[in-house]
Amino acid sequence: MPPVMSAAISTSRLPSDPTVTIPEARPAAPAPLGPSCRTLRAGVVGLGHQAREDHLPAIVASEMVDLVAVCDLNTQILDDVRDEYDKPGYTELEEMLATEQLDFIVVAVPHHAGRRVVKAAAQRGVHVLKEKPFATSLEEAHDLTGSCADGGIELMVTLQRRLNPIYATFPHLYDQIGRPFLIDGVYTMSVDPASGWRGQSRLAGGGCIIDMGYHMIDMLLWYFGLPDRVLAQSSAAARPELDYDAEDTACVMFSFDSGLWGRLLLSRCVSPRTETIRVIGARGSVVLERGRIQRLLSNGQVVESLSREGSWPSAATAQVDHFCRVLMGQRPNTSGPESHLAHAAFIHACYASAQAGRFVNPKELIA
Ligand SMILES: NC(=O)c1ccc[n+]([C@@H]2O[C@H](COP(=O)([O-])OP(=O)(O)OC[C@H]3O[C@@H](n4cnc5c(N)ncnc54)[C@H](O)[C@@H]3O)[C@@H](O)[C@H]2O)c1
After folding, report:
1. Atom of ligand 1 nearest to the CA of 107
2. Atom of ligand 1 nearest to the CA of 160
3. Is the CB of 113 within 6 Å of ligand 1?
4. How far is residue 239 from each of residues 196, 202, 316, 355, measured CA to CA in Å?
5. Tally of structural domains, the chain
6. 55, 71 in Cβ contact below 8 A?
7. Most C-beta atoms within 10 A of its C-beta, which of 73, 120, 253, 324?
8. H or E element: which one contains 253?
């Protein structure tokens, strides 16, 4: 049976894992935030869709953190958010970091802007809750891992599914399907593939693989560890009338030395919206959908099913609260820089494979 939560992502164990221990404080860490500490102070950098939909409402809803300041290069967006939340606003991150006493920042900028923002925070010892992806390349992932260590900061990459009980339940059902042989993951939606920075590979670090695909890749690595082989094919051809070069659709095959293998189908141009992972074993299968997980017998009969209504709206607050608890030493960082080197290696392997037309071993990239 393949390893669930392998050593490759050993810092990313499930919340329900009884072996989880609170990590030791790093020697160079900024002043520790003890359990009896005051409410934490946060700034939000990048006030676009994700910040306004998730992070700003989540911080306001949280009892563990105060929204102290906001930052965006775009003055119109900044003015709107500043007015709505009645907080100081900055167009320059450096000025916000120098002026405000912040425990952490939430970073929700376009992918190409992430490196500069994270490094600036690390230099000032300000912790970071970073929107996925951790980095746009393997080189950037190594660079940022070093910067976070040098600055003694915690960085947690936002991955809502990690804090959703439906997804954390997976191993309990998976253990009952016998020897697994196949993983079939599908994540598709229909959006504009040329929209803004997302349509340009140079700015986004790629297309659907690194962007929406990051969630599926995270679950694959969380549950099974880094595969031994990756073979990817992708295209940016679904909307020929539009100007973009970031892949809109990709199919990624992967396999483990154990014999387990599978594929991820990712697309920004396929409807209806679908998010499913099926793992098929000798005695049945587990089917994971958005908000529901089921175990089926080999004949297709559903033997158990778990769904959780309303978990998505609360996921953003659960996430920011979890990060506060990480900073207070009460929870492990389930999504830190070193664990995301595996994600960066997997993604690098996808793009290298698609270009070369052959299998690439992602483990060799971070050996
Ligand atoms: N977890 C999820 O499900 C999810 C969903 C959507 C987006 N995201 C992620 O959130 C991040 C932001 O995505 P979005 O859709 O909100 O993008 P967006 O383009 O809507 O917003 C980005 C904002 O950042 C600002 N910005 C750019 N450079 C900046 C800088 N150097 N300093 C300050 N502000 C800057 C822009 O002006 C813009 O307002 C991306 O990493 C994306 O992958 C995650």
Report:
1. 11
2. 1
3. yes
4. 15, 19, 32, 21
5. 2
6. no
7. 324
8. strand 249-255
Distance between CA 358 and CA 344 in Å, rounded?
Answer: 18
Give tens-digit pLDDT for 95-116: 999 999 999 999 999 999 999 9
Whether 109 is in a domain gets the answer yes
Q: 5 pLDDT exceeds 50?
A: no
**How far, in Å, is the centroid of ligand 1 from the Cα of 285?**
37
- Give yes or no: residues 117 and 232 share one domain: no
User: How far apart are the CA of 45 and the centre of ligand 1, in A?
Assistant: 9
| Distance of alpha carbon 129 from alpha carbon 325, whole angstroms | 12
Where does the chain have alpha helices with state H?
A: 49-50, 56-61, 75-85, 93-99, 114-123, 138-151, 165-168, 170-174, 201-204, 213-224, 311-327, 337-356, 362-365
Q: Which atom of ligand 1 is nearest to the CA of 74?
A: 37
Distance 48 CA to ligand 1 centre (A): 5
Q: What is the pLDDT of residues 242-254, one digit of tens each?
A: 999 999 999 999 9
Average pLDDT rounded to a whole number, residues 75-85: 97
